[in-house]
Amino acid sequence: MNVQFVTNSKGKVIAIQLPLKDWKEVEQKLEAFNISESVKTGYKEIQQIENGQLKAKSLEQFLNEL
Fold this sequence. Notes:
The protein is of the alpha+beta class. It has a domain at 20-65. 58% of the residues lie in helices and 14% in strands. It is built from two helices and two strands; from the N terminus they run ββαα. The chain has helices at 20-50, 59-65, and strands at 4-7, 13-17. It has a two-stranded antiparallel sheet. β1 (4-7) and β2 form a beta hairpin. The radius of gyration is 20 Å and the shape is elongated. The two termini are 36 Å apart. The mean pLDDT is 93.
């Protein structure tokens, strides 16, 4: 990955640049990570509902939160 750092006049890094191909790869990995985290959160909520720690929602409530 060819990363270039952009600095201000004081030498502080204020941005980075990378080739579009590399950025697309980063985006795909972030999306996969976000999906994975959503699944983990959903699984934890199911466990809490089964243990009586969290009240189950109706499908209508769930869809209204989206």
